[in-house]
Amino acid sequence: MQSGINRVMLFGNLGADPELRVTQQGGAILKLRLATNEVYADREKNLVERTEWHAVTVFGPRAEPLSKILTKGDAVFVEGTLRYSSYEKDGVTRYRTEVVVRDLCIASRRRASIPQPSATIEKLEDPFANETSTAEAPPAASPDGTPAEPAPTPGKKARQKENGAAHVSA
């Protein structure tokens, strides 16, 4: 019997600060709320943006350090598996879908203390502005006004000789 593939890849922004919980056995569980956006054109050709919210869970030793690093607004790439569960609350069975993380990559951080790029980038001068071009001029026209033929390009052996390469033939 062939096994299936349960793999999810999401790229989005954290919608809230992570919640770290510790189990009675001492295991760490980190809960994240991840928002992904999709933009599409509706029937009237208007752009519509749709946001999907995903419950993401990190188990194990990575959970605690990530809880100290990640904050609301951070862009992250998550790769993991889908897990479905159900529970009963007030006599009503509720269902939950979550992504269990295998790998997480922090793509960018949103911090108020980071200076804006326009305030820190200075105008750089073009280092090649004063150099003259070494390209050859186009061939001149012949006396009758027709364009002159370009000079023939040297063959392989001539190019190798100019470049100092040795050519060995069998």
Task: Give a description of the structure.
The chain is mainly beta. It has a domain at 8-118: OB fold (Dihydrolipoamide Acetyltransferase, E2P). It has helices at residues 63-69, 117-120, 156-162; strands at 8-14, 19-22, 28-41, 47-59, 75-89, 92-108. Strands 1-3-4-6-5 form a five-stranded mixed barrel. The longest helix has 7 residues, at 63-69. The chain is elongated, with a radius of gyration of 31 Å.
Which consecutive residue ranges, at least 5 long each, have pLDDT under 50?
Answer: 112-124, 163-170
Shape: elongated
CATH architecture of the domain at 8-118: Beta Barrel
Question: Looking across the biggest beta sheet, what order are the strands in?
Answer: 1-3-4-6-5
Structural class: mainly beta
**Mind telling me the C-alpha Rg?**
31 Å
| CATH H level, superfamily name of the domain at 8-118 | Nucleic acid-binding proteins
What share of the residues does DSSP label as strand, in percent?
A: 35-45%
- Give a quick account of the main beta sheet: strands, pairing sense, barrel closure: 5 strands, mixed, barrel
Q: Determine the fraction of residues in helical runs and give it as a percent range.
A: 10-25%
Short summary of the structure?
The chain contains three helices and six strands; from the N terminus they run ββββαββαα. The protein is mainly beta.
